[in-house]
Amino acid sequence: MLPTLETDRLILRPFEISDASEVQRLAGHIEIAQMTLNIPHPYPDGGAEIWIRSSKNNSREGSGFPFAVVTKDDGQLIGCISLNLSKPHRKAELGYWLGKPYWGHGYSTEAARRVLSFGFEELGLNKIYAIAMVKNPASTNVMKKIGMQWEGELKEHILKWDVFEDIVYYGIRKSDYESL
Ligand SMILES: CC(C)(COP(=O)(O)OP(=O)(O)OC[C@H]1O[C@@H](n2cnc3c(N)ncnc32)[C@H](O)[C@@H]1OP(=O)(O)O)[C@@H](O)C(=O)NCCC(=O)NCCS
């Protein structure tokens, strides 16, 4: 089951069906869809409910840990951060998006640091990695700030909206994390 985690300014908690309209409103911004692979645009009615139900199943099975990122001050849902596990390899992919009004305040870095410690200390992972399009420096900055290191770049590896995009991998091993 998905726990609730806390940072200085944020609560990371399971999504509830009642979050669906905010998820649709925030993730529906074109600049979120533009930089991610799995967020549709326009965001369809009912899509957030389906996503929340399937993400709850994933956390029940222990294969995915999608946290709603909520501000402590006012309980506002501002985004999502998740770990998707590959259990045989004791590794997980970190993914995140934040509603556009909340960019640039260090929230993603703060949430990502907490999820990293959850992954290593509570899930017993050996490695956590993240993938971004090369044209997404905000995302790669988050990766660098939490101690991930550049592992490689794959040229024209994905087709996004009719353009072949280069992607970059960043990662951190448990041994690196322990010496941060
Ligand atoms: C990527 C994203 C989650 C970052 O969220 P955020 O809370 O604004 O991130 P943070 O404030 O913690 O850190 C972002 C860093 O990138 C920097 N940054 C932001 N835009 C930048 C740009 N265009 N070029 C270079 N650096 C940039 C910020 O200055 C900050 O670094 P700093 O703290 O050293 O100043 C957010 O922009 C987003 O949701 N984007 C759309 C979805 C997405 O890209 N998801 C990730 C897919 S891999």
Automatic annotation (TrEMBL):
GO MF annotations, alphabetized: acyltransferase activity, transferring groups other than amino-acyl groups
One Pfam family cited in the UniProt record for this chain: Acetyltransf_3
Q: Which InterPro entries match?
A: Acyl_CoA_acyltransferase, GNAT_dom, N-acetyltransferase
Fetch the Gene3D superfamilies from UniProt: 3.40.630.30
Occurrences of domain N-acetyltransferase (ranges): 15-171
| Leader peptide range in chain numbering | none
Name the chain's protein.
N-acetyltransferase
Source organism of this protein record: Paenibacillus radicis
